[in-house]
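Supplementary Data S3. Sequence and structure tokens for construct A.
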Amino acid sequence: MNSQKLPMRDGVGVIILNKKDKVFVGKRKDNPVNNWQMPQGGVDEGEDYITAMKRELLEETSIQNIKIIKEIDKIYQYELPENLIGIIWKGKYRGQKQKWFITRFLGEEKEINLNTKHAEFIDWKWIEPKLLPEVIVNFKKDLYLNLLKEINLVIG
């Protein structure tokens, strides 16, 4: 399969900061080794980015109490490694181009519930932003290094 002919999937991602400026990460149930990621997902037809971000966040974490601090201007993207092309997303895409948001979690931690209808995570934690590039799968490392710069612009 020539993966370069496949399109990029339209997606969103959300950086959730708690009151201590730590970042929410979840451990994916389909890759439960020590890899963690921030909530993200696809944009449904007819959905705007903010609606998609809030829906994905709710579907993956049950979180609703957030304030959007910043909508990141740049669209970031990543390519899937060859071994995942044709497997993920029913083989329709070679990677994802994503609109990211930086948000503040305003709720209580008991609001966070991973046992949702479309569960993707088996565990979650708050980490220092600087650790993000160390916990993500290798093919998203550059993306997370860029997102870390965006976070640092907001929290100093």
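Construct B, processed identically:
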Amino acid sequence: MTIKRTLASAIVLSSISITPVLANDWQGKTNDAWLDGKVETALMLNSELNNFTIDTDVKQSKVTLKGTVNSEIEKDLAGQIAENVDGVKSVDNKLMVDKNYTSKAEETGKKFSRTWYDLTTTAGINMKYASNDDIEATSIDVDTKNGMVVLTGTVKSDTAHDLAIEIAKGFDHVNDVEDNLTVTN
């Protein structure tokens, strides 16, 4: 079994290492497709750019960049990255700059992140309440939306009330806590 894995690993590594060498002999559309993939990858690996808003087209080793970015700096950066990809002869940077532009992918990602934070915050606060003897977790309803935690329900003392508020405020991604708790003695 070890011999088969070693042989398979050697074949994969050989294929990966020889592909760039073979690419130097590629011509026409094959070479352009190879370069397009390299440019797309280089743009994707740069954390300052959203490569989903940048379209690339390669013809005869000449790259054309189209799409929208947020600043001249991002436009220049994308052009420089494309120019520095081995095999690229020239770059026609047709990127548009719109400082207010937000792509649908970015908006979706932000919404997903916010929802994820809200869900994990609610679950985490509920777990903290459940593990605390001074708080009856089943008597408190925790809702989180856009970083705002709303606590509704009852607690048995002022101490439990203050503790419930402090626990909620102590979580990451919590912007504020709305206190709708009632103290029942």
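Residues 105-183 form a domain with the Histidine-containing Protein; Chain: A; fold (CATH 3.30.1340). The longest strand covers residues 62-69.
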